[in-house]
């Protein structure tokens, strides 16, 4: 089973604090974006979905993330047999190659969340509360902050990025 999104087909609304921070792009925050990946397994690749008990537990868990102002969005993903993989050669004259799924489960994720947290330790504590079964694996990956790019992220690129974020579907749904 793989359904961290609990059937969500839309981003969750941000907390008032998150909205206030988004309104003032120049306000520094200690918050970090974390991508939380649920690793695929043979069951998720076979399309096995959760039963009512697990869906209820995941719904309660997701609600606790919402109540804490942590959850930005999350979704379960279909088996890789319904997906594709695009590989780029790096040569503009050489077209990208496309491979149709399925792919080996050990290379895949079957769901994800995006969380807004202060640090990795906080992410670990939230993940440890997740109602997953024996052998389930969840990976925590912090997002890259603009300042991590140093001088490569010019002022012009920063402005363009800010405008794109304001125009994104997620931002429009949050507003």
Task: Classify the secondary structure makeup into a structural class.
Answer: alpha+beta
Uncertain residue ranges: 3-28
- State the fourth-level CATH superfamily of the largest domain: Dimeric alpha+beta barrel
- How is the biggest beta sheet arranged? 4 strands, antiparallel
End-to-end Cα distance, whole Å, is: 32 Å
Sheet with most strands: strand arrangement: 2-5-1-6
Shape: globular
Protein name: YCII-related domain-containing protein
Region (Disordered): 1-27, 82-102
Pfam family, one: YCII
Domain YCII-related: 32-142
Keywords:
alpha+beta; Alpha-Beta Plaits; single chain; 175 residues
Explain the overall architecture.
Helix content is 32%, strand content 21%. By secondary structure, the protein is α+β, with helices and mostly antiparallel strands. It has a four-stranded antiparallel sheet, with helices on one face. The chain has a two-stranded antiparallel sheet with strand order 3-4. The protein contains six helices and six strands, in the order αβααββββαβαα.
Summarize it.
With 175 residues, this protein is an alpha+beta fold. The protein has six helices and six strands.
Topology, please?
Elements: H1 16-23, E1 32-39, H2 42-45, H3 52-67, E2 71-76, E3 84-87, E4 97-100, E5 109-117, H4 120-128, E6 138-142, H5 155-167, H6 169-174
Antiparallel strand pairs: 1-5, 1-6, 2-5, 3-4
